[in-house]
Amino acid sequence: MTIDRSPIAAEIRATLAVAAPLAAANLAAQAMQLTNAVIVGHLGAVPLAAAGLGVVLYATLCMLCQGVLTAVAPLAAHAIGADDRATAGRVAGAGLVIAAAMAAPIIVILTAVPDLLRALGYDAELAAEIERFLHAIRWGAPGFLGSAVLRLLLVASFRTRIVVAIPVIAVPINAVLSWGLVFGHLGLPALGSAGAGCANAAMHWLTLCGFAVYMAAASRHNSIMRVQRVFGEIPRILRLGLPIGASIGLEIGVFLTTGVFMGLFGADALSAHQLVFNIVGFLFMVPLGITQAATVRVAFQLGRGAPAAARRAGFVAVGLGALFMVASAILLLAAPRALIGAYLDLADPRNQPVVAIAVRLFAIAALFQVFDGVQAIAAGALRGYRDTAVPMVIAAIGFWAIGFAGGWLLAFPFGVGPIGLWLGLALGLGVVATALTLRLKSQARPAPVTGSAVDRPAAA
Length: 460
What we know:
This protein is mainly alpha-helical. It has helices at residues 2-41, 45-69, 72-81, 85-119, 124-137, 141-156, 160-183, 193-218, 234-262, 267-283, 285-303, 307-334, 336-341, 352-384, 389-411, 418-443. It has two domains: 1-228, no CATH class; 240-460, no CATH class. The relative contact order is 0.12.
């Protein structure tokens, strides 16, 4: 029995060694956004609303593009597992080329958004404030995507300390820079909400520079950073990465659309939705770190020619994520009012409708926490198997044909109201989690491996 358990214990330690720093880095990124929101909030409602919407638009576009770049991690980890560091370097170089190409349309889209909002009937003052913010933050897109590629290569080579160190250091620097640029302190110009956008963009470029300096120093002793013949790797990244980006877009889209429909039930329902979603999103940063660890652990073991170890890595990651999400579900059930109290004055009678809805949403969020963690980590493990097309289809069916459609039916035709929309999300997440877990079990099924079979992408 000891012999059977020791590989699992070793894998748990290895997964946590990768996942913990990644989760900390994800939380640091969230902390930066929260800091900017608090600083801009002192300017008033219009700047806060403009910066809030601007960040959502910017982050959504960047996350969709980052989803495509996520393919760098399994491809590089597989190559490193096979002791082919030159290929890992070429993959990263190709990722940087793709990142530069995708940053340009992000800048163009964010430039055009304010005019679109005006055409939709947005208040002139609000549209102008959004324009100022977007015109500042848009220049951070190349830095964001470039640093994402370097971070993925570092994760694939299991150099996770620097991956968490730079974002953690960036949090206080961003706070000081944002404070100075928003209010005009430290001899800096007072740019209002645009100052927070400038600070955000600057931090993305500083993060890119930090990773680049570290990797340039490391390349003196490590051939992984020799980047040659990168263009030949671009098709491989796109074949693997485009379905990942589409899957992320499907998931982000269903939550954003649910928020839009929640607004049909009034400001109280929308406020409750946003409050609970913020907390759930913060908790999700931990399983997101495990997801990223699952991808590189599975791909690395496959590169080593160890399919049994890859299978173990995938399911250990799923188990760890499920355990954390069970704990977070207990927190949401046990202390909903305490969590709401961090946002609202519970004693204010005007807040009672929001509190009542939020408490019920927390109960549903607790229900789908485990599903959310499992589906994300199973998808991450499948990326290690280079299986991304089928998970994309599963996401489309589960999130939209079942989850959103079911939530809409419950909320409107059946009259359940805002709670119905979240019940639909829970249903969709449950379906996706179950389907992806079964898919992972199928892909990880022991099979005879000959020659370079482990290097073949998973069949759809």
